[in-house]
Design goal:
Layout lengths: L1 H13 L8 E7 L3 H12 L5 E7 L6 H8 L5 E4 L5 H11 L4 E4 L5 E2 L3 H11 L5 E10 L5 E3 L7 H6 L8 E4 H7 L10 H13 L3 E12 L4 H4 L1 H16 L4 H21 L1
């Protein structure tokens, strides 16, 4: 009832016609069959009018069986070699028409009511380029959950670390299109780069103090296997949009890159 009132209020204030769906959800995937079903299910369990597009990079691990299981509820899907994750995300968003967009990596999932909470926040802040909530980090090996470092939005804090967790975000389509989506050149930090471009061109992002999504950490996660590249891209992003690299990035390098890489090697 509350969401229905907020939606009607938002539509009245913005002039958007009441057309379904409200959210375009893109799920990029490649050989993630063991997680894909949970990701898709978490979207459809949100009790929201959504359009869901699965962009598979040509998986050979059983992912197609899972996609076909859901195909009657999907708004579209394909499976073939592509130009990478960022390109697939842009492709999927372009296929949709909903006023709000997001992507959910196939090894992540929404918490119950999470997407609805983000949409409700947009009803209160219709001019925001994006909203974001808190997120859990789930270690697949142990099943342990811990909160990801997420903070209320502040430009200086964003320069010192990425204070936004990607699976816990929802973006205005108008803002997405105004910045051109994610940068297909970037492999590791397309989300961090996007937050900066949204800030510079559209204004600050809005924080929602609620856990709305879970990031799954496993042996094949890019941030585990490509730590050096991830850190280098992040530093380049900060320098590009902030004009300088805060000292914290250099002080944290030994732990975040060398120690973590060594630790992951022995854990495996």
């Amino acid at each position: 009832m509350v969401l229905r009132w907020l939606t009607a209020n938002f539509l009245n204030r913005t002039g958007i016609k009441m057309t379904l769906p409200m959210v375009t959800v893109v799920i990029p995937s490649f050989n993630q069959a063991q997680y894909l079903d949970a990701a898709i299910r978490s979207v459809f369990e949100q009790s929201l009018p959504v359009e869901v597009f699965v962009l598979d990079g040509g998986s050979s691990d059983g992912s197609l069986d899972i996609i076909k299981k859901w195909q009657d509820r999907l708004s579209g899907w394909r499976s073939h070699a592509d130009n990478g994750q960022a390109s697939a995300i842009n492709e999927g968003v372009a296929l949709g028409s909903a006023p709000f967009v997001c992507w959910l990596n196939s090894d992540d999932f929404f918490e119950p009511g999470g997407l609805k909470a983000l949409l409700a926040a947009f009803m209160e802040c219709p001019d925001a380029p994006a909203v974001y909530g808190r997120a859990w980090n789930l270690k697949q090996r142990t099943g342990k959950k811990s909160p990801i470092w997420v903070e209320r939005f502040d430009t200086d804090r964003l320069a010192k670390r990425c204070i936004i967790s990607q699976p816990a975000t929802l973006i205005s389509r108008r803002a997405w299109e105004s910045v051109g989506g994610v940068d297909p050149v970037l492999h590791m930090t397309m989300d961090y780069d996007l937050w900066w471009r949204l800030l510079r061109q559209c204004g600050p992002l809005v924080f929602v103090d609620r856990f709305v999504a879970t990031n799954r950490e496993h042996d094949d996660t890019k941030t585990r296997t490509l730590r050096r590249r991830h850190y280098q891209e992040a530093i380049q992003t900060v320098r590009q949009y902030y004009g300088k690299v805060p000292l914290r990035w250099w002080l944290a390098w030994p732990y975040s890159v060398w120690f973590k890489a060594l630790q992951n090697r022995y854990v495996r």
